[in-house]
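User: Could you check the structure of this?
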Amino acid sequence: MSLPALSPTRCAGPLATRRAFMQIGLTGFASLGLPGLMRLRAENALKPPGERTAVIMVWLPGGLSHVDSYDPKPDIGSEYRGPFKTIATKVPGLRFTELMPLQARIADKFTVLRSMHQTAGGHPAGTMQMFSGDPDTRDKPKPRLPDWMSVAHYLRERAGGRANPLPNYIGVPPASPEYSSPAYLGDAYAPFSVSDDPSRPNFQVPNIGLGDEAETRRLSERLALRKSLDRMERAFDREGELGALDAFEAQAATLLTNPRTRDAFDLGKEDAATRDRYGRNRWGQQLLLARRLVEAGVEIVTSSLNGPLCGRVNNWDDHAVNHHQFEALRFRMPNYDRAVAALIEDIYARGLSKRVLVVVTGEFGRTPKISFDRSTGAGNASAAAGTLQPGRDHWPRAFSNIWAGGGIRTGQVIGATDKRGEDVTERPCAPGDFLSTIYHHLGIDASKITIKDFNGRPTPLVDHGRPIPELIA
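Assistant: Sure, the predicted structure tokens are below.
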């Protein structure tokens, strides 16, 4: 897929000044205050590429049941307790369900946050809370605020200092694109999307790295001709604003002509044992590709674990009408466990554990109390339509996520829930804390930086919350 195109904006008129042009913006570009911009330049622009931090976010759309995974409650009644046994992990006293033996063996390499909570019960609003900090509990048709991935991409691009030919924000595939967006930053800060299945033998990323030298040469000649034809128009561009438009075309051309871009996406360069360790399936190869991309200098990577590997409805939304809750977990968790464990192992084995932060989460958990309803259709992890089966519904009041790398102290358990897993009882963490922690790793002080929205109002990145101390290097 090609890089996002500029979307239309209101015209400022032929006599617009440079200042007016930038305020109106390309697709609503927001303006970063000068102090914030200068601070970011000082903190990031002069750092060698190897020191610039990165984040891989593994997204579980629909929400993983915390009580069937990282926060089991084996001593509660049958109305709540699932069928899974608990197992010991590498961390003394920490237990997971039997569904995650590989992660249990490396639990000393990540930290479990058991006290995440938010206030929205629907997928759209819950995702917007986790991605942007929007406190609204209504399921709006589109986001009002830009997600943290687009914000980080925007700020880092504005700070400069990158010479990497690859896009700085890549979704493999993007996380919940229907519920996240760059909003007033403009489509230029949306992710470069990898939608194909990396486990397919003929996996390709369109518009990346031309393999034919003659084709590359012809493209370069066409670009040179285009530039010469544009010179007359540029001669009338006294302020130089039109040059900003060329940046996106230049990046698209770089993706086609620079061999480094093709190599970064080439999973064939990994040995067979490594590919096997991640799992020869879509999720495993997505996370292997995510690791390759951060090694190649990409700084924001998301990977949504959805699709057929989830079961009949292609996500983690395990209502009884969608899935048999426990069959769905049996169906998907071996691939999930293998892929996440391999990614975390590699972050440490390949010397990325300080620079790269890995976060695995969904928008909420699932109801600790089991519900029953009739299936709406047969398929993987769901009985024939009309069959009564168990499920768990949306539960934003308490859920778990895991954190690895980023220089943090691992082998920790942060927070706790009550005996049924219904409510947080220790160390509550909200979306503002979640976002502030990610921004902190990226060198962004979310409490001080504002970006102007469509109306020119300075909007804080996070107006509530602070970095979680236990997750700060």
